[in-house]
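Backbone geometry tokens:
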Amino acid sequence: MAPEQQPTKTCLNVGLEDEMEIRGYRPDRVKEVISWVFVILTLGVLRLVFHWRPAWWLRLTKCRCDLSEATLVLLQDQYKELYVEKVRVLSQLEDGKDLHQSDLLLIHRNRLTSETSGTSGNSVTHSSATSEGLPYFVNKKIKYVWAAENDQFEKLKGLEDGVACSFFHGARGLSVTEQAGRRAVFGGNNIEVHVTPIIKLLFTQVLNPFYVFQVFSVILWCFDEYYYYSGCIVIISVISLTTEIHEIRTMQRALKGTVTSNQIVSVCRETGEYEEILSDQLVPGDVLEVPRSGCIMQCDAVLVTGNCIVNESMLTGESVPVTKTPIPNPRQSTSGDMTFNMKDHSRHILFCGTQVIQARYYGNQKVKAVVVRTGFMTSKGELVRSIMFPKPVDFKFSQDAFKFIGALAIIACIGMIYTLVLMIRRGNGVSHVIVRTLDLVTIVVPPALPAAMTAGIVFAQKRLRRQLVYCISPHSINLCGAINVFCFDKTGTLTEDGLDMHSVIPSLSASFQTVVKDVQQLGRQPVVACMATCHSLTIIEDTLAGDPLDLKMFETTNWELEEPGEDATKYDIFVPTVVRPKQPDVVRASESFESIESIPFEIGIVRQFPFSSKLQRMSVIVRSLGSSHFDLYAKGSPEMISSLCRHETMPADFHEVLLHYTQQGFRVIALATRQLRKIGYVKLQRAQRETVECDLVFLGLLIMENRMKPQTRPVIEQLRGANIRPVMVTGDNILTALSIARECEMIKKNDTVISVHVLHSGGDSHPCIQWTYAEDITRQVKEIHTDSENSVNVDIEYSERLHFALTGRTWRLIRQHFPELLPKLVVRGTVFARMSPDQKQQLVELLQEIGYYVGMCGDGANDCGALKTAHTGISLSEAEASVASPFTSKEQNITCVPIVIREGRAALVTSFGIFKYMAGYSITQFISVCVLYWIGANLTDFTFLYIDLFLLTTLCITFGYTSAYPDLVPNVPTVSLISLRPLVSLAMQLVVMGIIQVLTWQYVRTQPWFMPFVPNDDDNYTCHEVTVVFCISSFQYITLSVIFSKGTPFRRSIFTNYVFLANLVICTAVSVYISLYPFPWLANLLMLSLSPSMLFRGQIIGFAAINFFLCLILENVIDSVTLQKCCRGILGSKMQGRKSGFEAIEEDLISASEWGPMSKSTSSFAKLMHLESQPAVSPTVTDENEGNGDSSEVGQGDFTGGKTWEQLDSDNFTVDTMDANDSTVLTGSECTTTTRL
């Protein structure tokens, strides 16, 4: 029995992606008074901390309570982000009228349909709406309302869940009162992106911890009369603030301009009359008229009458027009009512933000749709929310940077204690002690650090723009440098968008005929009529438009299409689309049609069943002019069409022919037909597609060629050479995907590919996993030996590496029944086919969970979720669907991928170098100040200004100007600051700097002309010791910039960075000039006390040169391969024990004694294809796929496990014939027990 949940803590959206924990709080006057007393005592500092941590303020000033009593709620999402939201009460309409109890009951029904459909759904009881009103709160633009029957808040929904399809056809419109009531709850139909006022934005930015620390530093420096650098910091901060505010408001305005729209729409009232209103007044349940001339949809609506041609590029990235048809009316069919589902009925939904190009219906009848979702609940609203509230980026470098700053803060605390002890013993005044102690904090933790860190990113962004790659998220650039696996969509990304016709293989009398290259040679055969009619093409502005596959197929027939005209009576129907040959004389030459020479050969398309990825097919019902009956033509994936055809019409070698073409990467479409006799037009219009799409006659196969882009193979070779693992994740057929993977060398020639299948008949049956060779049906598995657990060992011939390939269906079933297997599959998985958009995103998330830094490249079609989820998302589409992708390439190929990775590596190494440089600068200056504090002195204001402004600022800016290395190398940049190599490098350099400073300081004290410093009240620090420490440290800052400015293999040499070189020369020359013989006015300005001996001044330059070469040699030794190998050898066992994620999984797989539940038989791909195409064996595929249907995944040769991974990668395979009838597969718990993967 599950433990009882606390009444004050529960979860919202249980089981969903946006699941959140919620706790209720109410006011506590005593806590509030106590908290404000402490705020006043700390002069507001405590309140500033609570501004950064609002959850702390909530806990300190409020008390926990039941959600029903809460006035504030604390939410924690799946990323551990905390939100504090105020609970409000809805009690009035927009016009100020009170909402009565009955109004609240009516408008808060989650289904809003009980009176019409006869189902109550989850409509709330009277207790949900209290006498005071309806409690609610808003989080991330989504409203949550109180549901008393569940004693919790629930997400407010429209009509998208649990509504019967019959409801939409019964909708008659809302009255003005009903609409106002629903608008009070659902809000206006707006996707509002507020442009934050400048004052509010300024206040928010100034309270950022970085700027607060800068304000603290400036105030402290002003007390210390360090006005010059304070003024510079103020100017830099003002410029930085202005730039940030301008960029934020520019992005907000751009997003607002993209998503905000409002137009006049016509809605039906309950009286049947139509009224024009603004679209922001729409509410769920409104009946909307879709203009015949088209419009931009302002809500999600279900089409109930008429057809619409829609451009959905805003959501999918594809500008291919899509035909939307009315939702089936259960009252006109015998199949009964069904529950509406947004995914299953997407072909009947007009989504918000999409463009309706044309709306059609016969006569003067209106094209009507019922509003189901408005505002941020719509599909467009979800997309905008994902942009406004992105998933937080978890980057090791950023985490370590904060930890490192914490370590610097600890060093600052040590320095503060050191300063306090010295100055108290010396008897300095309190104010002097406080200023000097706090000043040490601004030295160790430099206020300019964040600004300096952005330099490399800004330059990388500019270089990307010059290479036609545009970045809307600059902070994602560093992430690109850590990428070690890159996922690619196939169609439009690796291959060309369009398809080329290869051939047609007609079938007559259950036998394949000769392959035909020129379709026009087939004359008026049914296969040609099927190609000319079975499509969703339409004419838009006198141009034929539609799916590229349909376009190419239709163009090959050399027929022409005519949209519905007035003269439609000869077809005995209302509005047909007509197709006819362009060359009728040639077509009529066919002997079989000599008897109807006088009748034009035209075919009218009277009904269309759109392509469904769930059903993997589309079909049309047509009637030839002069014909006495209707015909049905269907096309789709070969396995689906073959399952619908009569067995006696299928060629015996169907699977072998199919396998022959799919293995070569061709896209194969099956065609079929059926004569519909004794059926009238009215009955035909009401018929369900399942009743007519059966008993088909197989017509043949359509072979389409999807050519690989010429840039694909070189890029994949670059990535493999850089140890970046390429992965293909596509909605296409698995064999087509494997062929492309081989062609672009994502899978090498001699690599072995294992196809993973899950055989499951549904219900309570146990699923089983079957491992098959993915490509060669002649290869079989030889059993070597069987151990006590029936694990089978095999040898594989010439296998350099083992790859897994699986489909979306297999992914879904393994995720459901064998989730522990998925991490091990994705470590070696290379081809993921038939993957829906959700599954693509799941794959990216799983790769991230096991430690990969994941990149994703797609053309925007079905890739939006994966592009947003990946560490680096690159869109090849300029459609609005890619607006959430960090990178967009103008070049429509994957050459942008190595460009982004190279620039990312350069930016990451630059950020590392700048961070180390800033840390080295801070500690070096900390050492200088601590040495001078020992004698009661300090650096003067102008020496600080020279170091901070002239040296540090200019070197930091030009440091990041070095461009990326032109080649991708196998090494990957370090992503952790807190790791052995960067820590040793920084520590050793600082040790050298400290030793050189101390030795130089002691050396000057031994000189005969040396005059010790005498403390004074005028802060006159003119003395030999201050001068020597300043001069030697000036060179050290220059040395550090050179040492930490890494070149190859991730950046070009610093000798190519002419700006940086010029800066180094100028800084070095000025420092030498100041150290040797400065102008008297400059020496007085800097308060320098130069040595009377020119020899000593030269020795300072010599010490600086020794310091430089010593540091340079030391850094080269630390970077040397030999030292790294020695460290690995010494620390190997300890480091190996710390491995986690995909590295640990890979080692696990290599050391496993056996893996994989096995079948002892061999199975051909043709057998598996036939098995998986049977509904009784495998459940209906519900994945979203690309294209109009292809051959499904098939396999051959059962693969058996038992060898270690090393053996599988090295042993030879011996061919042996086995009994194909001896089939033993492990199912259920056996499968789980023996699976070592």
Q: What stands out?
A: The chain has 41 helices and 43 strands. Residues 940 and 1021 are 7 Å apart (CA to CA). The chain has a mean pLDDT of 78.
